[in-house]
Amino acid sequence: MVCRRNRGMNKEKKGIVILGSTGSVGVNTLSVISQNPERFRVDGLSCHNNISLLIEQIETFSPKVVSVSEHQAPALRKMINERNLSVEVSEGLPGHIEVACYQNASLVVAAMVGAAGIEPVMAAIRHQKTIALANKESLVLAGSLLIAEAEQNGVQILPIDSEHNAIFQSLRDENPDHLDHITLTASGGPFRTLPKTRFKDITLEEALKHPNWDMGKKITIDSATMMNKCLEIIEAKWLFRIDPNQVKVLIHPQSIVHSMVTFKDASTISQMGTPDMRIPIANCLGYPDRIISGSSFLNLAETGTLSFETPDLDKFSTLRMAYDVLALGGGSPAALNGANEVLVDLFLKKKIPFIRIFEVLSDLVQQLKNLKNSLQTNETPYLFEINQISDAMSADGWGRDFALQAI
Ligand code: MG
Predict the structure, then answer these.
(1) What is the mean pLDDT of the chain?
(2) Which of 30, 67, 74, 163 is the most exposed place for a label (fewest CB within 10 A)?
(3) Helix (H) / strand (E) containing 57
(4) What is the per-residue pLDDT for 1?
């Protein structure tokens, strides 16, 4: 025991880069790092806008490089000079890429929100960094490209998303041929028991109240529409290289069973824990070691009941859309995601009602099906085949335009 501990202590610290350090996953990652100062060194941080939090993180963790959006860089440099801090500041997409590829770092936590995360993640993979992936969009938009790049570079992608991390932990070193299916659990969000007829009256404040998880606004709305689970089905397809028909969804309101894997012999293995993002983050940071996450331990006697339900696909049509866009292939998932980002943004600004998100996304999937069956695909080949990131971005743009025109 003592021996193992010493070996751990003498190991060189793992250099970590966090892309999106001021968001919910970024903050939780730094919290796990604080619990394990003997193991980790923060080499780089990047964020979009929140430079007041970033400057605190710089003071606490002393990274070598940071990056922010162009318009925040001058203010950040001023704050750094005033405080006499020694850190290199870069800006914009080239800056985020520079941080992602910082030479001494071995693990990149990809926690940026949205499509802006893809290029830095791809660059980090090309530089052979292990990726702890929280940025769903990189897999949803360009899963085929990202996984191919990771395989080519021998890079491991560790999933931070709690469901995928649970599957990753449950699969361990099992032969993929032994797998029958995986089951993504879903809390069902705040409107699980609300009749569909009342969806038209849902307010922003109601949609922002997630029963179990404390997360950013975008993902909280995505949980309320179950678009989050839709994106997670797509994510699972790429991460675990499985047929979408092998991905099932099960409603589990307590968010204790984070997902499960069922093998051919009908054995089901699951990972459980309190709903605390520090658990999957600690799993990724420490892998293959187990480290302190800072989360409280599960007390099932206190939880009392774990319940499960089949999802209502009529109410949450977003779940069906995952299988539809995966069958359409190419940039179709990117188009759906782009449209959803626009719609959530409009809903957060109180410009459209909640129900409109479902309606527009459903129209978009129908439009994609029509295009695939018509001759018009030649004008938008990227919707059904992507060969490079720009194809995924074109499909994303197509989805955004579709949503804006629909509103
Ligand atoms: Mg999740």
Answers:
(1) 94
(2) 74
(3) helix 51-61
(4) 39
pLDDT tens for 382-392 read: 999 999 999 99
The alpha carbons of the chain give a radius of gyration, in whole angstroms, of: 21
Compute the distance from residue 224 Cα to the ligand 1 centre, in Å.
Answer: 13
Distance 138 CA to ligand 1 centre (A): 15
Distance 257 CA to ligand 1 centre (A): 12
User: Which residues lie at CB < 5 A from ion ligand 1?
Assistant: 161-163
Q: How confident is the model over 240-274, as pLDDT tens digits?
A: 999 999 999 999 999 999 999 999 999 999 999 99
The answer, as to whether pTM is greater than 0.85, is yes
CA of residue 163 to ligand 1 center, whole Å: 5
pLDDT at 219: 86
C-alpha angle 184/217/109, rounded to 5°?
65
Quote the ligand 1 centre to 161 CA distance (angstroms): 5
Q: Please check whether residue 154 is in contact with residue 128, taking contact to mean a CB–CB distance below 8 angstroms.
A: yes
Beta bridge partner(s), residue 53: none
> Distance from the CA of 10 to the center of ligand 1, in angstroms?
35
Question: Distance between CA atoms of 333 and 320, rounded to whole angstroms?
Answer: 12
Cα(162) to centroid(ligand 1), Å? 5
Closest CA to 398 of 330, 301, 315: 330
